TrEMBL record:
InterPro entries: ATXR2-like, SET_dom, SET_dom_sf. Coiled coil: none annotated. Residues 34-522 form the SET domain. Residues 176-191 have a biased composition (Acidic residues). Residues 104-164, 176-195, 312-333 are annotated as: Disordered. It comes from the Eukaryota. GO terms for molecular function: histone H3K36 methyltransferase activity. Transmembrane segments: none annotated. This is SET domain-containing protein.
Length: 554
């Protein structure tokens, strides 16, 4: 076998238990996943996470930053967030002003919503929150607020609902209001909105209009991208530089970008925006791997997960010689390593992710079931989409796409996307704008009367979907190891304090030392048949105790 093929084969193989052990032990040093260990489960389930300490009901079992994450492009209109940690930035005024200016309704001449109707809407939210102690403010179900709905329509145009799959795998629940409608879904028929006066929008944007109570929800100031692009903003210089060093310097289309071909990069990004946002996240995996491979002995745990210090480094991430980047051997301080060996080392964190070839992993739309020709055509079209995206990415990376050819092969690229497809990957962050209007709603009647002349027209202009959550695609090293159970002992759930893109798992009940930590990828209140049908999308038949019992009664 040629070396190139051998490297591709190594990149797509499931890591040995020893490699897995080494990686997750190194990850422990970061403090992420304290009280958890990763090991093989057996029964064909692959690896899973196990408690190494007792967790009580409601305890956070895991709080973990993403390894890579990208906000959906369409969502950038609705939520201005740090492109590294995904906190909302700027101010409540800026968030509202942006939504109004970028998403301003046309004057429709329709009657305005009555104040009562607006209040009722907010009350419904408060009502559902009050029923759950843990849920305070808009922390309620942030993981799940209508994200399936929103991303299902907003994500890509390929129409096979890959984001729906992502949400399901994340164990995300879609919150329903009393009428069975999704909270905070982007309501495109929301044409009862009354446009805000342009001068109000301008004043919100330039900071001259201060909203009552907004100082109670301060947001970090906007920090620009180091490369000068308008795509990414940050909450701090630290986040800006971590993102820059981790991947963005090769994916930035700004004037100080280090991308090989920014024009080609724009082509790649336009293609992702028009087809599937997963490609943006996949590009981060590729860029991060190239940047790590350029160094001699990249640390096994990427610096940004380890608080700025790479862990498990052999050579502490020194820059490789430029000769190495062009295809020769690097020799620095006695280290001799070929580009392809460097690539394999750099790939290590991503090799841990559960993968499948994208077009094989995607669930076939139900209407194609039992129609093999249509299904084959459907899968071929996904393969074509994947190939189209890869060609553009290769062009954007120029010579390095040759140096690290296995990384730019369809075999590897399709599995990177398959990894996003099959893991726990929805990125959802609650909007502080929702908290803001809830705080207004909780004022006394007297206080409310004073502020409503300012806040009511804004709510009328924003309409029913007055706040929008940040949504995107992410990959989490540990959360992605959580296996499914129809009676899970943990759930993905964002509390009020969880204001960034970290994954959060909470214990559903006491979890004993040695127990596997499981979440539900699907709506576990469904019937046995429906659960099995939904799980078929993930390529396995659930044999949890509940399913075994239900199968006997069915
Ligand atoms: C997000 S990954 C979970 C971690 C995975 N076990 C690993 O080794 O990385 C999802 C995949 O794990 C496997 N899996 C998860 N829960 C399972 C279950 N209850 N029974 C069988 N396989 C399961 C399936 O192959 C599924 O596609």
């Amino acid at each position: 076998m040629e070396k190139m093929d051998r490297v591709v084969a190594k990149m797509v193989e499931t890591p040995s238990p020893q490699r897995m052990q080494r990686f997750y032990s190194a990850l422990k040093v970061t403090g992420i996943g304290e009280g958890l260990v990763v090991r093989d489960v057996g029964e064909g389930k692959g690896k899973g996470i196990f408690a190494s300490k007792t967790f009580e009901e409601g305890d956070p079992v895991l709080i973990e930053p993403p390894l890579v994450a990208a906000q959906d492009t369409a969502n950038k209109v609705d939520a201005l967030v740090c492109a590294h940690c995904f906190q909302y930035v700027g101010s409540i005024e800026l968030q509202i002003g942006r939504r109004l200016s970028l998403n301003q309704p046309q004057a429709s001449g329709r009657p305005a919503e009555t104040p009562e109707a607006e209040t009722l809407d907010l009350d419904k939210r408060s009502g559902s929150e009050a029923s759950d102690d843990e849920v305070t403010g808009s922390g309620q179900g942030t993981n799940g607020f209508g994200s399936r709905e929103v991303t299902g329509s907003g994500q890509g145009t390929n129409g096979f609902g890959s984001r729906e799959a992502i949400d399901k795998v994340n164990g995300l629940e879609t919150e329903l209001d009393e009428e069975g409608e999704h909270y905070c879904e982007v309501d495109e028929s929301d044409d009862e909105r009354i446009p805000a006066p342009p001068e109000t929008v301008t004043a919100l944007l330039d900071g001259t209009l201060k909203l009552p109570l907004s100082e109670q929800i301060p947001l970090p100031a906007v920090v620009e991208c180091l490369g000068g692009c308008s795509e990414n903003v940050y909450c701090s210089d630290t986040c800006a530089s971590i993102s820059w060093e981790a991947h963005h310097k090769l994916l930035c289309a700004g004037p100080r970008s280090e991308a090989a071909d920014t024009e080609a990069l724009r082509g790649f990004r336009d293609f992702a925006d028009g087809s599937n946002n997963i490609f943006h996240a996949a590009a981060q995996v590729v860029a991060a791997t190239v940047l790590r491979a350029r160094k001699v002995g990249a640390p096994i745990i990427p610096e940004h997960l380890a608080g700025g210090v790479g862990i498990g480094s052999e050579g502490r991430g020194r820059r490789r010689s430029s000769r190495a980047v062009t295809g020769g051997r690097a020799s620095e301080g006695g280290d001799e390593i070929s580009d392809l060996d460097a690539l394999l080392r750099a790939w290590e964190p991503f090799s841990m992710g559960w993968k499948g070839v994208w077009w094989e992993s995607v669930a076939c739309p139900p209407e194609m079931e039992g129609r093999p020709e249509e299904e084959a055509e459907f899968r071929a079209s996904i393969r074509e989409l994947c190939d189209g995206s890869l060609q553009l990415l290769r062009a954007a990376f120029g010579r390095e796409a040759e140096t690290y050819r296995p990384l730019f092969s369809l075999e590897v690229y399709s599995r990177i996307i398959g990894m996003f497809e099959l893991n726990n990957l929805a990125l959802v962050v609650q909007s502080p704008v929702e908290n803001y209007f809830l705080a207004i709603d909780e004022l006394s009647e007297d206080e409310k009367r004073k502020v409503e002349p300012v806040t009511k027209p804004l709510l009328d202009a924003l309409g029913r979907s007055y706040s929008a959550h940040c949504e995107g695609t992410a990959f989490y090293m540990l959360q992605s190891c959580a296996n499914h159970s129809c009676a899970p002992n943990a759930r993905a759930f964002k509390r009020e304090q969880d204001v960034n893109g970290h994954a959060v798992l909470l214990a559903n009940r006491r979890i004993e030392v040695g127990e596997e930590v499981t979440i539900s990828y699907i709506d576990e209140s469904d019937s046995y048949i429906d659960r099995q049908r939904a799980l078929a999308d993930y390529g396995f038949v659930c044999r949890c105790l509940r399913c075994l019992t239900d199968s006997l009664n069915d």
